[in-house]
Amino acid sequence: MSTNSLHTFHIPVMGLAFTIDSPIRVAHFGIDSVVSITDDELLEKMRAFYSAKFKLPYQEITTKIEDFRASRITHYLNMVDQIVKEKFSQFKTELAESKTALENYIALLPNHSEIKTKLQQFLDGPSLEEQLQEYIESHLHPGAIDVNIMTKVDKDNFDKKTQLPVEFNDAHAALRGFAHSQLQSSLVLSAGMNPRLYSYIEQFQDFFPTADGRLKKKIILKVSDFRSAMIQGNFLAKKGLWVSEYRIESGLNCGGHAFATDGLLMGPILEEFKQKKNELIASAKPLMEKALSQKGRPIPESALPLKITAQGGVGAAVEHEFLLNHYHLDSIGWGSPFLLVPEATSVDAQTRNLLAQAKEDDFYLSNISPLGVPFNTVRGTTNEQLKQKRISEDKAGSSCPKKLLALGNKQYDPMGMCTAAKKYQDIKLEELLAEKEQLSAEDFQKSFDKITEKSCLCVGLANASYLEHSIKIKGQDQGVVICPGPNLAYFDREVSLREMVQHIYGNASVMTTGHRPHVFINELKLYVDYLQKDLKNTEATSPQIKKWLTFQSNLLDGIGYYQQLISDSPYFVTQRDEIQKQLNHYTNVLQSIDIPVLEAVQV
Fold this sequence. Notes:
Elements: E1 9-11, H1 22-26, E2 32-36, H2 40-53, H3 68-97, H4 99-106, H5 114-124, H6 129-139, E3 145-150, E4 158-159, E5 162-163, H7 170-179, E6 186-190, H8 195-200, E7 218-223, H9 226-237, E8 243-249, E9 256-257, H10 266-295, E10 307-311, H11 317-326, E11 331-333, H12 349-357, E12 363-366, E13 375-378, H13 382-392, H14 422-434, H15 441-452, H16 457-460, H17 463-468, H18 497-504, H19 519-537, H20 542-568, H21 576-592
Parallel strand pairs: 1-2, 1-11, 2-3, 3-6, 6-7, 7-8, 8-10, 10-11
Antiparallel strand pairs: 4-5, 9-13, 12-13
Helix pairs in contact: 2-3, 3-4, 3-6, 3-7, 4-5, 9-10, 14-15, 19-20, 19-21, 20-21
């Protein structure tokens, strides 16, 4: 069976719950999607729900069972795999027997797909059911059930007050859960390098290649620049592990946590990967082969394939096609727009309606994440309403039932404390009140807001799925946290899966809003705004000034790259004047920004 992707897009991981069951919904159409395996409690409840729905045997895995976290993840992924295979088998039969089903499926495929052309010939020609069935069996396959781990969400765990070995840390246990599953898919590692976690991958046979180059489980690294990709890829190669895909995501024009680059823009980053892809292979291949030899493992006879993909803010078919063709990419991630597709993602009706009605100014980069990383969200969520109500009643903070983000802060508790927790905020607010007389009213309020603005993401990012599936939610009401990228401002209604896929491939349009700037311009604006805000809110130390100057210089270099790109590429013919005008505007803005000068950094 062919393992080449049937589509030129994939659905990236979104939050904890929004793509938790996306493979069950869309994999039989050949669409790849990514499941978060951070929240084992959510996975266990979803396993109970889908076991009942599909009449599968179910036995609860409680927290009293040894290694329950990994076990829950393994069992959930195995169940998803089983359901996807059953749905795909039924779907193949339906395609072979129903012209309507076949016609609808053909409408979902990319325009330049050889499979689409061949299936259309079957549809238009004489009835050849046996030949059609043979073709379907040999050429179609379900989409990938990939999984995501945020590498830094790797909290230590305890048995009462005794710290457990590192392999029971959250990310380690999640990795083990995936490794023990029957899936043949990919592990997407995001949020930066975790050497200890990366080294743990060596413990599992499925991640190593066979002599003929097959990998049962692959590694995908989500990266923001070429240098990071090279460093991480080589680190893993030295352990005999191959990175099968580098997934480049815009630092700011994305959903969820935003990891801004030093002003490096998407276009120049993609250009560097395009020009230096062979360097990634040439650098990692001998390191991997040496490590495999030292371990006594088979060395693949030929080079293993390497994919380069991208995601973040893409919203139009012309952008999709341009990125694929100009940068020689293998796939484009479409995330936030799928939050408006009930057939693809798990979102409660109230939140989906909020997203559809939200305008540009409603999407913003917040400080609500306990991780201390900027977090993309939207105004008006039920989580925000409930949080503000607790603050007004002098009950700020969350009950913190899951403690997934009780990571590095061990100042008040050796087991860690989440900055969104009521226990933590009570301590910090008491300290603040003790200093109140020494602070101005404005400074006091700023400090108060900084403490209380944190949201319980562990619960808030899971609740949408519970609400959609009518699963009982226990404990303190946290409402729903949603984490769309700012690109969702240009999509303003709920749409079907067919409509969204046809929009991606340019056969329809689901955007009914007014003018939408090009994805590169949208990202540039976000970076310029980010720099201006950082200048306003951050102390001007010597290292910080150097960082600002680098940031500004990189943005101006990126604009220069775009100016050359739009003059050379035929994709920009209809937008050239408009984009040039926008680039000139942001050049002027950047050149007018007054970055402080300290003697320490003067030449």
